[in-house]
């Protein structure tokens, strides 16, 4: 499978503005900027997009593992926190923190923890990042 997205940038880093588009059409000319790293608003930034990609990829990976084990999640809430920090004269993503809360009928916690750990190891985005990723998984009753 191959897919793509495009980014168009105009201006300098401080006051410049970009737009993102995805082949799927989920985002078309969606604004992004360096300033959005510090402020809230309708603009995104690469770190936020990475967090969304990681959260969705992990969720899909875990759903597939659950299916293989004969379980279906009633709901999974996955969030990823990306830490961007200065390192060696430039900014670097230094940590990813994945948090999962899930409702999976008839699944015991030990099996859930094992499947969540397998999903973390098998997640394509997590494997791409090669950054130490912590996982906190909670099975809700």
UniProtKB/TrEMBL annotation:
One Pfam family from the UniProt entry? OsmC
Q: Where are the transmembrane segments?
A: none
Source taxon at top rank: Bacteria
What name does this protein carry? Answer: OsmC family peroxiredoxin
**Organism, scientific name:** Falsiroseomonas frigidaquae
């Amino acid at each position: 499978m191959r897919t793509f997205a495009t980014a168009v940038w105009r201006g300098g880093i401080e006051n410049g503005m970009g737009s993102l588009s995805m082949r799927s059409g989920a985002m078309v000319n969606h604004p992004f900027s360096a300033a959005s790293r510090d402020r809230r608003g309708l603009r995104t930034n690469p770190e936020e997009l990475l967090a969304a990609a990681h959260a969705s990829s992990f969720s899909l990976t875990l759903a597939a593992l659950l299916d293989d084990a004969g379980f279906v999640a009633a709901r999974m809430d996955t969030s990823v926190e990306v830490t961007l920090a200065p390192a060696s004269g430039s900014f670097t993503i230094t940590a990813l923190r994945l948090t999962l809360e899930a409702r999976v009928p008839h699944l015991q916690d030990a099996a859930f923890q094992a499947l969540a750990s397998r999903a973390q190891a098998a997640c394509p985005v997590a494997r791409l990042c090669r950054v130490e990723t912590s996982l906190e998984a909670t099975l809700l009753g």
